[in-house]
Amino acid sequence: MSSCSGGCAKTGCAKTGCANTGVDRRGLLRTAGAFAATLLAPGVTLYAFGARDAQARPAGEPASANVRWGMLIDLNKCKPGCNACVTACNEENGLKSSGRPEIDAQWIRKVTLRNAATGVIQEAPVMCQHCENPPCVDVCPTGASFKRADGIVLVDKHICIGCRYCMMACPFKARSFVHEEHDDQKVNAPRGKGTVEGCTLCVDRIDAGRKPACVEACAREGGAMIFGDLNDPESEISKKLRQLPTTKLRADLAVAPAVTYANL
Amino acid sequence: MRALRNIFAATLFLVGAAVLSLASAARAEDGAGRTPAPHPPRAQGEHCVADTAFMRRNHMLMMFDHRKEAVHQGVRTPQFSLAGCVSCHAVKGEDGKPVSFASEKHFCRSCHSYAAVQIDCFECHASRPEAPKQAVDAGGADIDKLAAYLRETKQ
Amino acid sequence: MAQQKYRRLTSHTPLFWLLIALHVIAIAAGVAAALYMETHGHGVTGMSNQIVWGAPHVFAVFLIVSASGALNVASVSSVFNRLNYKPFARLSGILAIALLVGGLMVLVLDLGRPERVFVAMTTYNFRSIFAWNIYLYSGFVAIVAFYLFAMMDRRASRNQLFGKIMGSTAFVWRLLLTMGTGSIFGFLIARDAYYGAIMAPLFIASSLVYGLAFTVLVLVTMSHETSNQLMPEEMVGKFRGLLSLFILATLFLTLISHLTKIYAAPFRGVEAFLLHDGGVYPLAFWLGQILIGSLAPLALLALADNGPTGRKMLALASLLLLLGGLAQFYVIIIGGQAYPLNIFPGYVASSSFFDGAINAYTPSAPEILLGISGVSIAMLIAALGCRLLPFLPEAPAKSEGARP
Predict the structure, then answer these.
(1) Best of A73, A100, A168, A255 to disrupt the C interface by mutation (most C CBs within 10 Å)?
(2) Rounded to two decimals, what is the model's pTM?
(3) What is the pLDDT of residues B28-38, one digit of tens each?
């Protein structure tokens, strides 16, 4: 157990303490600006440009239940053989192959589908569906698997004990277990041996007002993926959802995924 | 067993701390030098997010509290960001690149090895800053925008 | 009725020391295996992102389920007032605790972050059946310990009511515990092989079988050890009857659970896989669970008499039952995961992440060693308990008495 996890439940104490030390944050931030721009926050830098679909929250404000992030994947636009979303995800989150596919993490994957009756073949990217009623959250003994106010389903790796019950419970095979030690993690995507992980919808990007990496990559390849706020009737995703014939995976389970497939 | 090891390390630490405090009380007159003290390398910025004494005592609490906010609520206050600590306190190795936690020169290790307090932050978190790729793309003008944003979020 | 006397283990035969040595070696190997798995990550095991629970879980679930069943004898004596069972109640209690601890140790050492077991004990998500089970398990140990105290303490045991209350509490609790363990699987909506309320009663019935089989085997070993026949003829007969009844109940529930799924078209795929096409899983089911683990013991129990030969046959039947139990949980836990998730009904799916594929699993040596060490931990705790406290009954004078 890490020694630093042993202590303070007094959320206030550290912060008031800091404020009382009289550090001038304005001055600090001015001087820190340059290095921060280079090192601290690539996401924050892009924040400054703003984004069209993902309105960034001001820092310090928690994720809000007024927003429900979701994704629409139009399989008619998803090119056979195209792996752009998968590559982008692996690059963004530092997922590398160990050479043993059965233990490799895959946060998003392309699934080839052959209609059993007609033989028609389609391809579909599958990732964490960020369910409204996520079974992985229900079963997690410690609460490490949780749903954020804005609907993003995440693993708090600080309290994940690696029991893998969420992987048993997930209907979409969306979670992976880290089977080996890593020391080359990306700053934005902490992941370590012995804990469970899965698509975070690039939560750090979303918090900075950007789109998930897969969506960004897909936009360059035909734009099958649309990302946005399902609660906003004027968002691009909400408009598209009203126009296209859509399906949710395992709709029979009533877990209400935030990811919707069109033309499946 | 990691737990056993930690308990052992914690016990060692407590015993060590007791011995040290006794020793330092006894030799208060002698001055420094007898006991090896850690020399954490200097950071790159001018100030830390709080003064040194406060940070020494409370950095773990700041991170412990912030991790809940950051992970569960998406509150990513730069002041409490572990990535911020790691980039400002990066120590360059022989090859001129920042060293990872595997190196004894790593900022966090310089004290934690000394105090025999094991941390598992870097089982998951990156222990060195990433090469500043995006920032180069962003260009100089955007640093002003960033600074403006940071000032704004300060209020 | 004469006052029943109890005894500790005092002197040991070479065979006993040999058993102890084997258990100690098995535990050392298990701990080494756990360390190895923790240092290198689960990549060194046969488990993967497809088969997320492997051999350790088979052993752990088997031991936890057996633990609640080991309390059978005690429950029968104090809840159902069968005095013949009373002399074995103490042993049944300590065995229940020992088996549970063995199972939990395996479960905890297989965690990805076993050192965070403290997190599991301090941070709860009460929607999780797994979290309830943490309470059910620790509560079980506490309640059975109190129950043992009620039976064994000189003053407490004078109070019949206290013993009765503790016995009944333990009885209800063990039913809840096995229900909870079964529901770990029964509550999983995503997996065709698991989802269903039948898992809870199925696990309860199985627990009765394996717990009693463990009790019988420990009694046989201890009889040898004390040069005392602890199981009088009368009890051989009763154990034969009880075991047969429990086996039939388990078979019945197994039949119902498969029939229910075969009847529903969406589940025919997984049923065909588990019972016919799945290679090792149908083999483990038909040969392991049904033939070796149920029919053969039933035949042995039916053919046995209550004399010395019958006693040996009872012991053999118990051994077969335990093997069958491992086969049963292998089919349930691993077979259930080997069959792919049906994410796209009506489509044939394939991907680099093994969608739509039958998942391969070969248990690795560390996993098996860890699993076996759980059994050994349980046996060692039981032996140590018998050495330290008077859990064993003195042979009743009226039956055949001491044997060489």
Answers:
(1) A168
(2) 0.85
(3) 444 455 667 78
